[in-house]
Amino acid sequence: MNPTDDAPRVALRARQGAGARYDAPSAPAGDLLLARRGTAYFARKLGELTDAGLAEPSLRAGDSKARVVATVGYHARSLAERLARLRVGADQPPALSEDARQAVIAQGATLPARALRSLVHHAAFHLDVEWRDLTDADWEMRVPLVGGETVLACATPPLRARAVWQAALDLGNGGRLADVPAKIRAAP
After folding, report:
1. What are phi and psi of 81, to 5 degrees?
2. 142 domain-assigned
3. Closest to 175 measured CA to CA, from 58, 70, 75, 57
4. Quick one: pLDDT band at residue 144, thresholds 50, 70, 90?
5. Nearest to 41 by CA among 184, 169, 132
6. Which domain holds residue 47?
7. Which residues form the Mycothiol-dependent maleylpyruvate isomerase metal-binding domain (predicted)?
């Protein structure tokens, strides 16, 4: 790589100042990009839905579109909270049981449309901030997930990417499999 290729990036960071956040050098850039693009794609599909459309059935058997949206919002919130606690060395709260998690999602699906949209937006933003605040060493730390499973922090972006891309399709309002990146389609 030519050292002058990085000059625009260095100049941008200088203009943005010391308060701007950036991914750590060892952050999984490709996976973060897939998660961020998936989040943007989901947000676009959500934005195309009317408020009344949120009550309609999704492509997930038995779930409304509002429930799919609530699932996406609470998924981001859970990951962000766990990463934040990991980053500062705080104890992790016990994971919710699957029944408790489903109850939270069901309750979230009853939120007014504006609140449901805000949940998704704010939780995604919080998750992105937490990813950006992870140091090189943090990316190798283990993050406890719902159900007791743990993964490396570097595994959270692909986990999120799969969730948001699938949810965008599950909304059933024009999301196409052809829009989903090949790496996500090929993932187990």
Report:
1. -65, -40
2. yes
3. 58
4. confident
5. 169
6. 27-186
7. 36-170
Q: CATH no. for residue 145?
A: 1.20.120.450
Instruction: Specify if 13 maps to a domain.
Output: no
In a domain, 82, yes or no: yes
- Out of 33-47, 74-88, 92-106, 112-126, pick the least confident: 92-106
- CA dist 110 and 108 (Å) reads 5
Average of per-residue pLDDT across 87-102: 83
Which residue, among 33, 32, 27, 30, has the nearest Cα to 136 in the 3D structure?
27
pTM beyond 0.85: yes
Question: Residue 168 and residue 46: Cα distance in Å, rounded?
Answer: 8
Element (H, E) at 40: helix 29-47
